Amino acid sequence: MPTLTEIPFELDAASILETVHIAPDSPDAATVRELIDKAQQVACPKALFQESFIQAKDAETVTIEGATFTSRMLRKNLDGVERVFPFVATCGHELDTVPLTPGDFLMEFWWDAIKAVLLSCAIKHLKGYLKKRHALEQTSSMSPGSGDVTVWPIEQQRELFSLLGDVKAQAGVELTDSCLMKPNKTVSGIVYPTEVDFRTCQVCRREHCPSRSAAFDAALWDLHQHGGEPTP
Ligand code: SF4
């Protein structure tokens, strides 16, 4: 199972301070810079993936190398697709070994912002690697549990992990009984080739989400809910 561990990253203090809304000359900024220094010393973002082939498709299911996924939107997005790339990308479990001041929620929030930067470096590196090594042009991805709960239920993390072997040993990522992942700044899913730029945010009705990357698309939502019939 290919695991990418030599992932370049940059922890830019100015950008992180802007993300967490801290003035660069404030006392809190000094603490954030200290945290960035600590992260710099231990960080090892990682990504694990597997080149896989679709065996069967049904009206609402897709079977990939023995694992069956139930999601109308996933099934629709994989129309005409034969080869997919299940993956896990993570900020790296090393970040969870750094002791923070117990009960300091602000510090935890800042630490999470640093971890999020590392995760985004891992995702970017993985997608670039897949495009180069596997001759993919445009790709999109879907993740179990991302967006509205019915789009692709989070419980299907179990099937996804079954395609990736010993994820804990290879990438330091653990799947909990409630299908969350540790470290928290970890993403799993399926990358697939497409000419359509699909984002789960298009079928997510959550309002005021600071991470939204695409507007809600009512027509696409109808397609997911009712197979294309307008909402009654
Ligand atoms: S809008 Fe927010 S919660 Fe919904 S899929 Fe996008 S990032 Fe996730």
How do the strands and helices of this protein lay out in sequence?
Elements: E1 3-4, H1 13-19, H2 27-42, E2 46-49, E3 52-57, E4 61-64, E5 67-70, H3 72-77, E6 83-90, H4 105-133, E7 139-142, H5 157-162, H6 167-171, E8 174-175, E9 181-182, E10 186-193, H7 218-226
Antiparallel strand pairs: 1-2, 2-6, 3-4, 3-6, 4-5, 6-10, 7-10, 8-9
Helix pairs in contact: 2-4
Topology as H/E string?
A: EHHEEEEHEHEHHEEEH
What Rg, in angstroms, do the CA atoms define?
A: 19 Å
Q: End-to-end span in angstroms? A: 46 Å
* Quaternary structure of the protein: single chain
Shape: globular
Ions, cofactors and other ligands present here are: iron/sulfur cluster
Low-confidence stretches: none
CATH class call of the largest domain: Alpha Beta
* Annotated CATH topology of the largest domain: NADH Oxidase
| Number of spatially distinct domains | 2
**Considering DSSP H and I runs of 4 or more, what fraction of the residues is helical?**
25-40%
Biggest sheet overview? 8 strands, antiparallel
Give the tally of β-strands.
10
Task: Kindly estimate the percentage of residues that lie in beta strands according to DSSP.
Answer: 15-25%
- Total number of helical segments? 7
CATH architecture of the largest domain: 3-Layer(aba) Sandwich
